[in-house]
């Protein structure tokens, strides 16, 4: 299972600092949606330039203009770009077309999708590399939120999936046991007093 570090920060400078600290322990470096909104595509280019050996993940969360948005992110240096699962099939197909042009991949983020398992199968059939079983920051804060549902959805989908939404040291084992190909951790790494140590601890928890 790969480890992905989601950098939900607001400046390229801070993202470069976080990425440098975590890089030895992670496979995929994610530029969070707020970072891309704040800094633009140049942040993607800066991270790829600093970490050419890592998979750079641009969390665009595209909802429309799939081909155009994915194309500009791949041009900027992204290896994986997200499109929302609630978007129409034509948006996903357009983004996949851009990915094929660049020899890169589309990840479909299933945040907000009620039947994640069914949509997962549909979007992988449309050409997505894998899906993200994702509970966003707001959903995690809602009363009654349970992480286990994401794992069940992943298991029943039968397609390659990542899990995102509050992954930490005491839950990463269950993510791996669910069969996920990628565990995504944001706050558990960037919110830790020692970012390098937090990333190393998560890496060590993967069997
Ligand atoms: O995409 C995101 C929010 O929309 C986050 O990056 C993702 O949820 C992972 O962060 P955390 O581990 O802090 O929940």
UniProtKB/TrEMBL annotation:
Alphabetical keyword list: Lyase
Assigned protein family: Belongs to the HPS/KGPDC family. HPS subfamily.
The protein's name: 3-hexulose-6-phosphate synthase
EC top class named in words: lyase
Metabolic or biological pathway, per its Swiss-Prot or TrEMBL entry: One-carbon metabolism; formaldehyde assimilation via RuMP pathway; D-fructose 6-phosphate from D-ribulose 5-phosphate and formaldehyde: step 1/2
Domain Orotidine 5'-phosphate decarboxylase: 2-202
InterPro entries, sorted: 3-hexulose-6-phosphate_synth, Aldolase_TIM, OMPdeCOase_dom, RibuloseP-bd_barrel
Enzyme Commission number, as recorded: 4.1.2.43
Catalytic activity: D-ribulose 5-phosphate + formaldehyde = D-arabino-hex-3-ulose 6-phosphate
């Amino acid at each position: 299972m790969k480890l992905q570090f989601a950098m939900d920060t607001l400046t390229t400078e801070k993202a470069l600092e976080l990425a440098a600290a975590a890089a030895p322990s992670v496979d995929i470096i994610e530029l969070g949606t707020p970072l891309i909104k704040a800094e633009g595509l140049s942040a993607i280019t800066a991270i790829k330039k600093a970490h050419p050996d890592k998979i750079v993940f641009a969390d665009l969360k595209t909802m429309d203009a799939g081909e155009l948005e994915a194309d500009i992110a791949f041009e900027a240096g992204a290896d994986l770009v997200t499109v929302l699962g609630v978007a129409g099939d034509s948006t996903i197909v357009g983004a996949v077309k851009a990915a094929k042009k660049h020899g890169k991949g589309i990840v479909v983020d299933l945040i907000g999708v009620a039947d994640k398992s069914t949509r997962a199968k549909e979007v992988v059939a449309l050409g997505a590399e894998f899906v993200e079983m994702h509970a966003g920051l707001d959903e995690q804060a809602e009363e009654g939120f349970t992480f286990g549902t994401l794992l069940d959805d992943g298991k029943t989908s039968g397609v390659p999936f990542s899990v995102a939404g509050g992954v930490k040291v005491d839950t990463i084992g269950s993510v791996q046991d669910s069969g996920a190909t990628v565990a995504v951790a944001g706050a558990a790494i960037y919110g830790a007093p020692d970012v390098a140590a937090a990333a190393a601890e998560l890496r060590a928890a993967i069997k």
